[in-house]
Amino acid sequence: MKSVSSVLQILPNVASADVTPVKADAGTVQVINALFRELMAIFPAWRQAWPDQEAVKAAKATWTKAFMAEKITKVEQIRFGIEQCRKLGSDFAPSVGKFIKLCQPTPEMLGLPPLETAFREACRNVHPSMAGQANWSHDAIWHTAKESGFESLNRLETSLARKLFERNYVITVRRLIDGLPLQKMPLALPARVDGCRTPEIGNRALAELRAMRSGATHHG
């Protein structure tokens, strides 16, 4: 029998279209089975999460579906998550949501500021008083602020603005990992931003956040 590590080493990348809880192909099933064997070896109290075979089977289907939804489709991502699990020092297996986060390299691993530092920089630079003199430390922070909406970061209360920025910062990190281009910050910003501030801008951001929350609840 091949070891879990060797299985994960030789399996090809799994196309997202093939990763479904009902119609998973043989390669996907092999990856999920190997992953769960590895998790059971790392976390001695795994039965707290999966007390019997029925629970294990249901969890495998749920995890496969969550991987598809969150675009965890490469064996390299799962291997990275397993390595992070070994560093947790916990007896208890993580939830699928936590494991998915462990599969994602942190901004710091890519040479970017941590989330809170990037968020503070973005909020400072998009403030109207900084028009024409903002100093951006990295294209990734400019790109994330642009995707979040300068007006939204200005108008939303801090906790909501942070959630919006965090969601887009995660997407920005994924773009960097996938080698996709980011929006380039302009060499010089205009002295004033054109356009009127309208309630619709903040409302649109709030609606997006509510949808994110309901999706997270659904997936969790």
UniProtKB/TrEMBL annotation:
It holds the Pfam family Phage_lambda_P. InterPro entries: P-like. GO terms for biological process: DNA replication initiation. This is Replication protein P. It comes from Pseudomonas aylmerensis. The lineage of its organism: Bacteria, Pseudomonadati, Pseudomonadota, Gammaproteobacteria, Pseudomonadales.
